[in-house]
Amino acid sequence: MSKNTKNWSYLAGFLDGDGSIYVRIKPNKSYRFGFQIAPTIAFFQSQKEEEKLKLLQKDFGIGYLRKRNDGIVEWIIGDEQGIKTIIQNTILFLRLKNKQAKLMLEILKMKSKIKDKKDFIVLADKIELFRTLNYSKKRKKRIY
Amino acid sequence: MSKNTKNWSYLAGFLDGDGSIYVRIKPNKSYRFGFQIAPTIAFFQSQKEEEKLKLLQKDFGIGYLRKRNDGIVEWIIGDEQGIKTIIQNTILFLRLKNKQAKLMLEILKMKSKIKDKKDFIVLADKIELFRTLNYSKKRKKRIY
Fold first, then answer.
1. In this structure, are residues A107 and A8 in contact, taking their beta carbons and an 8 Å threshold?
2. Does A115 touch chain B (CB under 8 A)?
3. φ, ψ dihedrals at B69, nearest 5°
4. What is the C-alpha separation between A33 and A144, in angstroms, rounded?
5. Which pLDDT does position A135 carry in this prediction?
6. CB-CB: which of A12, A95, A135 is closest to B52?
């Protein structure tokens, strides 16, 4: 098999091993309810692997690379269509991040249907569930 | 596709994302040239993921799990047959750790053919190449 095909079971393993699926809620007054909702899939590698990660990003044709100042290069998928494409194609192969993947799809669906502040709060609560699935010590608890 | 099959392209992605391929040389007088050569493939997860990692280990039927004191659980493959099985089945799918995989196979071959101290030194030099591929700051430089 050529490496230059979209090998989704490979990407599922890479996502389980190296990836992160999360949604950030950032205070931003230009958004309707005062918060921006930023769903993301990200992969993290040493900058030594930048070229290889770039090839992977190109083969899948999704997202972009971002160099951090600490020697890490990130492959970021922040657009909803890209996130859906990855999850829908990897979810049957995932073995560790199934719950995060499923939760992300639910959140994207809810997000597309927000009508009022009540909907927004239900969505924000749902997003809080990532807290129990992932384990960031930095994430803040917010009151909406 | 059932998750409970040996999905090697998944494992290739998981190895690229989460795994480590390395050989340690440990001083040990009970070994012929005063050093034990310990080839290893290891995966590292939070202990939250212990059960899922255990399932993965069982499905592939290779290696064992080890709990560390720092909240990490490792899936360790230290037997040469297990290491060969993983590498031979994943190498065509690997995109980041190809060089480490190839180097490991070469080292296992050389290791099986050591006849004298000269062979051992050539092997030890070969093992040093992992230093340039991986990036441990802790690994020591040794003189044989």
1. no
2. no
3. -80, -10
4. 9
5. 65
6. A95
Give the CATH number for residue B80. Answer: 3.10.28.10
3-state secondary structure of B73: strand
Question: Could you tell me if A11 lies within 8 Å of chain B, comparing CB atoms?
Answer: yes
| Interface membership of B48 toward A (CB under 8 Å) | yes
Give me the number of domains chain A comprises. Answer: 1
pLDDT tens digits for B61-86?
Answer: 999 999 999 999 999 999 999 999 99
Q: What is the pLDDT of residues B110-133, one digit of tens each?
A: 999 999 999 999 999 999 998 888
B contacts of A17 (beta carbons < 8 Å): 13-19, 43
Q: Which value does ipTM take for this structure?
A: 0.89
In a domain, B32, yes or no: yes
Predicted model pTM: 0.90
- For residue B96, list chain A residues with Cβ-Cβ distance below 8 A: 45, 49, 52-53
Using pLDDT thresholds of 50, 70 and 90, give the confidence band for residue A72.
very high
Active site residues of B: 17-18
How many interface pairs between A and B have CB atoms less than 8 angstroms apart? 82
State which residue of chain B sits closest to A98, comparing Cα positions.
Answer: B52
What region, left, alpha or beta, does residue A24 occupy, with left being phi > 0 and alpha being psi -120 to 50 degrees? beta
Domain around A41: 8-133
Cα–Cα distance, B134 to B28 (Å, whole number) = 24
Residue A138 falls within a domain, yes or no?
no
